[in-house]
Design goal:
Strand order of the largest sheet: 3-2-1-4-15
Strand content: 15-25%
CATH superfamily of the largest domain: FAD/NAD(P)-binding domain
CATH topology of the largest domain: FAD/NAD(P)-binding domain
Distance between the termini: 55 Å
Number of domains: 3
Largest sheet: 5 strands, parallel
Shape: globular
Helix content: 25-40%
Bound molecules: flavin-adenine dinucleotide
Structural class: alpha/beta
Number of strands: 15
Amino acid sequence: MTDIKVNGLNEPGLTFHELEQGFTIKEAITEAGRCLNCAKPLCRTGCPIDNDIPGFIYALSRGNIGEAREIIAERSNLPAVCGRVCPHEKQCEGHCVLAKKQQGIKIGKLERFIADFDAAMHLSRDKVPAKINGKVAVIGSGPAGLTVAGDLAKQGFNVVVFEAESEPGGVLLYGIPEYRLPKKVVRQEIERIASLGVTFITNCLVGVNITVDQLFDQGFDAVFIGTGTALAKGLDIPGKDLMGVIQATYFLRTIVLYNDGKIDRKEVPVYKDDQVLIIGGGNVAMDAARSALRLGARVTVVYRRTESDLTALRSEYEGAVAEGAAFCWQASPLAFIGKEGMLTGLEIATPTGKTILPANKVLLAIGSRPAARIVSTTKGIEVNPAGYVITKQTPYGMTTLKGVFAGGDVVHQPATVVLAMKEAKRVAKGIAAYVQAKKLLEEC
Ligand code: FAD
């Protein structure tokens, strides 16, 4: 397990170690044995990437874990990730017929078991086809970029991934906290994609270190943009520049960098006994709240709507409450209050009037949008007024610039890992069809 230096000090047992324990082999096979193997498997219908869930569960129930992993690999490049962070209760598990009797199969946990067991035992291996079908540049290595890279490599494309950070993974590595998604797991999944022959070039910010036009000059047949939504939204109210007003995604990123020994503890901007307010009600807000609690802070989440309107997963909200986060509902921020440049509180309006909540840190978790580095340095890629890249149906995922494709959050607004993967899988097909047609025309 990763050495967690940033540790919870306020609550015994509240650490960054993974919360959810996986199945033992006996538990996994027993759970798989409960599957009814329905003639019409609704679990599969509920999976955005059409995973052959009954297939891999059946293989597992017979103890064929390598075969189960191979079945998953036909549709997914990130099973250990999806097994942990997908909203299963709304997808596969929510559709399981046994869920009506509160006895639904724990599909996410089974997927996670198969992927983890296989990674530890090296049971299955993907076939590595010869790279004869063309050269594709993938910009960004979050779930969208990794899916395009994996799917195209399996089809014999020569794929090079260009990533701005020093390590691939996108939000999987730098956003979702260790206690929900251990970084070791993300790295294992990426190693498997690399073993398909995918090359990763890190510390390369496309639009600054290299342009899309230069990628074409280097002989790439197509370019995929999977750059997510890197720009966190600010709150344009008085006091926004006070020391102590921080983006939640920045805070989460510093924890990963600190744990990796890349920055000092003092650069992680939350300390024991800090009074922290989190503004927002989505998964980022819950991750920031629960991470700040682990650093010994006192945490209140400030949300402009009611409990039933929270966009965060119910389990994330309940986890935050159980760990000690307070919630302030129907609270609209009016101004950051400060003294000598330092934050001291947040003025809010509630249905009962205005009040000031004391705080020395506010973490903003109110959304994000795409950066313009690539579109501003490449002629012909159109975006909508909010900055999201416009793509076509045919070939699927192509932007308004020939040969340049896009997918994931940079097109569809921040969503989920599996929705980014779903789109990326469709775009990978679009890229394959485009490159095949391009090669054919070149031969003619
Ligand atoms: P990203 O994951 O954002 O990846 C984009 C990549 O592109 C990054 O690596 C970035 O460094 C790189 N990049 C950007 N610009 C450039 C450039 N110019 N040149 C080179 N590289 C570049 N979803 C779930 O399903 N379950 C969850 O529990 C969940 N929790 C979340 C928690 C947090 C804190 C956050 C922020 C998101 C969470 N999500 C969750 C949402 C999910 O992570 C995203 O929807 C998903 O990561 C989007 O994938 P992507 O590949 O489009 O973008």
